[in-house]
TrEMBL record:
It comes from Stomoxys calcitrans. Residues 10-335 form the Adenosine deaminase domain. The lineage of its organism: Eukaryota, Metazoa, Ecdysozoa, Arthropoda, Hexapoda. Keywords: Hydrolase, Metal-binding, Nucleotide metabolism, Zinc. This is Adenosine deaminase-like protein. GO terms for molecular function: adenosine deaminase activity; metal ion binding. Its cofactor is Zn(2+). One of its GO terms (biological process) is adenosine catabolic process. Pfam families: A_deaminase. Monomer. Gene3D superfamilies: Metal-dependent hydrolases.
Length: 343
């Protein structure tokens, strides 16, 4: 598979965390814009981001979650959040992502409320739509380590914002360190979101926790983030319930939940015709792009152009875009494959 074919291909990204998607160059730009200068310490800290974490698997996952704290400091002001959101969208657009579902955890601090956090992002998404020729939707994240009360507040806000911006606010994500908290605590809030018509894209089976995974699947949702430790029976359940699985190759390898690309569960899902898509998760923290993730998938699992087309179609279908938007995306994708048959 040709790198330039994947690079110029119009792509759909369904699983991207805002703060994790800030790339190193963009963090440097942001530092300059916010502080006027980047201290040596700042530059040293950035360098640590893209280094492979060492230690046992649990350490690797925990270290990954520590990295987000640095980004959170940069996006703790209105200006920082606005600039960071724009840079993330710009970087996805420059990788030819033409449809992006960005997810983020609303944060309250002395500079802004959770409501303001969401509104700043929504205004930036609107501004970026024309500027970068990209459709961007928002998924509101619940951090499982913050407990059910915060989750309840966030779901209420998400419903309010969806009513105000129905074409932008599409769904809910449950994320955060998978080793902390339990799904049961969020059932009530997630049910409320479901009843309100919000879609659910939940992190599920990112670590080995068969019971919780089963509870989640029985609750049912729309898209499964990672799905690394789904049993074969649970994979069948996903198939039956039409759940698409968001596979984040480099994220899983760098966090140590998957031992190598060749051992990634995408291979099993692909071979068993389970609806799966390739996503970046945190392209900043994991120093990757959607193009690179697709290239890894092609090289590791022997995907050809037809397979890549299938993945693009899966992503369009599983997106939370409107029917009309999906038609436009499909048309553009079809045209690209038709025009580039010989590459
Ligand atoms: C690596 N696998 C992962 N598993 C679970 N949650 C993850 C994650 N990667 C990121 N996040 C979640 O997204 C937040 C950063 O973006 P936002 O501040 O929300 O924009 C992290 O703090 C974590 O809660
Ligand atoms: Zn994720």
């Amino acid at each position: 598979m040709d790198l330039s074919f994947l690079k110029t291909m119009p792509k759909v990204e369904l699983h991207a965390h805002l703060n994790g998607s800030l790339k190193m160059d963009s963090i440097q730009e942001l530092g300059m814009e916010l502080y006027g200068d980047n201290s040596d310490e700042f530059l040293r800290e950035i360098k640590h981001f893209v280094e492979f974490a060492s230690g046992n698997d649990e350490d690797k996952l925990n270290k990954c979650f520590q990295k987000f704290q640095f980004m959170h400091k940069l996006t703790a002001t209105k200006e920082g959040l606005e600039l960071a959101t724009e840079k993330v969208i710009r970087d996805f657009a420059s990788d030819n992502v033409f449809y992006l579902e960005l997810r983020t955890t609303p944060k309250a601090n002395s500079n802004m409320s959770r409501r303001q956090y969401i509104e700043i992002i929504l205004h930036t998404l609107e501004d970026c739509h024309k500027k970068y020729d990209i459709i961007v939707k928002l998924l509101v994240s619940i951090d499982r380590s913050q407990g059910h009360q915060v989750a309840e507040e966030i779901i209420d806000l998400a419903i309010e914002m969806r009513n105000k911006y129905p074409s932008l606010v599409k769904g809910i994500d449950l994320s955060g360190n998978p080793a902390i908290g339990c799904f049961e605590d969020f059932v009530e809030s997630l049910q409320k979101a479901k009843n309100a018509g919000l879609k659910l894209a939940l992190h599920c089976a990112e670590i080995d926790n068969e019971m919780e995974t089963q509870e989640m699947l029985d609750f049912n949702f729309d898209r499964c983030g990672h799905g690394t430790f789904l049993t074969s029976q649970q994979v069948e359940q996903c198939k039956k319930q039409l759940i698409t699985i968001e596979c984040c190759l480099t994220s899983n390898v760098k966090c140590g939940t998957v031992k190598g690309y060749d051992l990634h569960h995408f291979k099993y899902l692909f071979e068993n015709k389970v609806k799966a898509v390739i996503c970046t998760d945190d392209c900043g923290v994991f120093d990757s792009t959607l193009t690179e993730e697709l290239l890894i998938a092609c090289r590791t699992y022997g995907l050809n152009k037809e397979h890549v087309y299938g993945l693009s179609k899966n992503a369009i279908e599983a997106s939370f875009a409107s029917k009309e938007e999906k038609q436009v995306m499909l048309k553009r994708t079809d045209e690209y494959f038709k025009d580039n048959q010989d590459i």
